[in-house]
Amino acid sequence: MPEREAGALTKKALRSCLSERIASGVARVPVGACKTMPLFLAKRASHLTEAMDGPDCDPALLERSYHQFRAVNGLLSRSRFVYKRFIRPLMSDRGRGYSLLDIGFGGGDIARGLARWAQRDGLDLCVTGIDIDPRAYTYVQRFPQSPKLSFRLADVTTLVARGERFDFVLSNHVLHHLDAPGLQAMLDAAQALGARVVVFNDIRRSALAYLGFWLLTAVAFRRSYIRQDGLISIRRSYTAKELRARVPAGWEVLRAMPFRLLLIHRGARESA
Predict the structure, then answer these.
(1) How many CB atoms lie under 10 A from the CB of residue 35?
(2) Most-buried pick from 21, 132, 207, 233 (CB within 10 A)?
(3) Where are the alpha helices (DSSP H) in 141-203?
(4) Residue 23 parent element (H or E)
(5) Where are the domains positioned within the chain?
(6) What is the per-residue pLDDT for 166?
(7) 43-271 is a CATH 3.40.50.150 domain
(8) pLDDT at residue 26, rounded to an integer
């Protein structure tokens, strides 16, 4: 769909959404609950492929995308909130060390942030990032690593087969890349790897999310894949209702601002 047409359709849906909020009462109808979405957002566009996932994508644009992930995630992903809400409270024993797995580290910015935040809080957290893309692994080699932060070229099934285990498992923007069998396999592996809590942090599809990102990236994050792939990511992402229908028992779907979905599994140690 042409970008101009998509933008016009999204603005129309936004006006309808705001009218619905006014008619129903803003306090009772949150933005994410607006029922009206343009047709191209009404269902997951799981058939679409992001350019940077392709083996023949432009290396310069890919590197700029990795570099810009820190700014994009800093603005939109709420990783600091996830750390403060779901991870930090479970590290109450200052006398022991903790471990965290970041699945699909991309540009490595979230893994680095987690290690930095824990250090500032005086917590002993060892962060391991994994990714299946050798280009991402090559990119993060430029950053200093330490005994508390490491990156590996690996997938979750390999870690499960090795019997590895982590206190916490986090992942950002991975769910919308997976088909139905891949989603189930990922959840099974993450549950096997995470002893205390598993959090998948992803986009919540909506007209406002699409319009907001469309406007934001009209002036920022140029000369990379951030804009075109980000809009595709929104179209591939779930609504809360869709994700709840896909995940097995024991997983909790929460909505967070701005336009986020958190898929959470609490392990036996966390629940105790």
Answers:
(1) 8
(2) 207
(3) 156-161, 180-193
(4) helix 3-24
(5) 43-271
(6) 98
(7) yes
(8) 31
Three-class secondary structure of residue 133 per DSSP? coil
Residue 107 has phi, psi (to 5 degrees) of -85, 0
Question: Could you count the other beta carbons within 10 Å of the beta carbon of residue 85?
Answer: 14
Closest to 197 (Cα-Cα) out of 117, 272, 115, 108? 272
Burial class (CB in 10 A: 0-12, 13-18, 19+), 5: exposed
Side chain identity at residue 11, one-letter code: K
The pTM is what? 0.85
Q: Which pLDDT does position 152 carry in this prediction? A: 97
Both tokens assigned to 237? 């992402």
The tokens of 177 are what? 């890349």
Low-confidence ranges of the chain (pLDDT < 70): 1-36, 268-272
pLDDT of residue 268: 59
